[in-house]
Amino acid sequence: MSSRKPYIVAEMSGNHNGSLDRALALVDAAAEAGADAIKIQTYTADTMTVDVKHPRFQISAGHDLWGGDHLYQLFERAHTPWDWHAPIFERARERGITPFSSPFDRTAVELLEKLDAPMYKIASSEITDLPLIRLAASTGKPVIISTGMATLREITAAVEAAQGAGATDITVLSCTASYPAPPEETNLRRIPVLAGALRLPIGLSDHTMGIGVPIAAVAYGAVLIEKHFTLDRADGGVDSAFSLDQAELRLLVTESERAWRALGTTAIGPTPAEKESLRFRRSLYVVTDVRAGDPVTEENVRSIRPTGGLEPDLIGTVLGRTFTVDAAKGTPLTWDLI
């Protein structure tokens, strides 16, 4: 069990819908919900791809959210303008929430360094861009690596690239890079496998609907949960269909900590919280007034709550014996009475 509650990251992505005011409102809402961090993405359409109308640059027509979109136009719509970064970071710091970003090229890292970004997130599709990983790691800041689509060999190569560039604080996120992601393909059982293979803290970048999957991930040892976040799914942001709203984010914060606390230890036996309940286990009691010389019968001795009398399993031993003293109803049956 991690010594700290899960770290909750609210991913803004393109859910600002092209409005700086909405981006700042998202920061406020994430802070009010209790998230630890707000994450954005630092790219432009030109740093991500080229403006070519060719099928290889086009998302498949059957995609649930962006079917038929060309990459350049999608990134134009979804990107966070670079002149918004400073006010977003400033608002987050004012609200006591940590701002950081996913850079997608050298110019993005340079911008984020000017803003004193406290850490870097490598997106799943960039896990094989080892030069980018080395660049982010060379800043000396913590690096978070998302692993959607990646093989263990690719994940190991990314981690080694970060370590080779000087990173000493690396978190790896289990991820299914599908939007939204089917719960049955989330494969939370790989979290402890990754932890054992990499000997690093493992979290979850989650694109499923709701909070059930990330709560379950905590039980598998996830130390960080990243979820896309929107003010209102009905507003139709590029990622809004699989994003949490503020009420759901607040619930994730609360329930992930509750799940973490529930992990406890491997000890088996009564806990301090059960001390009072222990008093109300069953035991053998005198249940009607009896006098010395009366036989012990099923009518005057029964197994009831609370404790204090003989163990219930001794009923066969005591039946037919004789009371040696008078005893009132509600007296624990002990050996000195019979």
From TrEMBL:
<keyword id="KW-0808">Transferase</keyword>
<feature type="domain" description="AFP-like">
    <location>
        <begin position="283"/>
        <end position="338"/>
    </location>
</feature>
<protein>
    <submittedName>
        <fullName>N-acetylneuraminate synthase</fullName>
        <ecNumber>2.5.1.56</ecNumber>
    </submittedName>
</protein>
<dbReference type="InterPro" id="IPR057736">
    <property type="entry name" value="SAF_PseI/NeuA/NeuB"/>
</dbReference>
<dbReference type="Pfam" id="PF03102">
    <property type="entry name" value="NeuB"/>
</dbReference>
<dbReference type="InterPro" id="IPR013974">
    <property type="entry name" value="SAF"/>
</dbReference>
<dbReference type="Pfam" id="PF08666">
    <property type="entry name" value="SAF"/>
</dbReference>
<dbReference type="InterPro" id="IPR036732">
    <property type="entry name" value="AFP_Neu5c_C_sf"/>
</dbReference>
<dbReference type="InterPro" id="IPR051690">
    <property type="entry name" value="PseI-like"/>
</dbReference>
<dbReference type="GO" id="GO:0016051">
    <property type="term" value="P:carbohydrate biosynthetic process"/>
</dbReference>
<dbReference type="InterPro" id="IPR006190">
    <property type="entry name" value="SAF_AFP_Neu5Ac"/>
</dbReference>
<dbReference type="InterPro" id="IPR020030">
    <property type="entry name" value="Pseudaminic_synth_PseI"/>
</dbReference>
<dbReference type="InterPro" id="IPR013132">
    <property type="entry name" value="PseI/NeuA/B-like_N"/>
</dbReference>
<dbReference type="InterPro" id="IPR013785">
    <property type="entry name" value="Aldolase_TIM"/>
</dbReference>
<dbReference type="GO" id="GO:0047444">
    <property type="term" value="F:N-acylneuraminate-9-phosphate synthase activity"/>
</dbReference>
<dbReference type="GO" id="GO:0050462">
    <property type="term" value="F:N-acetylneuraminate synthase activity"/>
</dbReference>
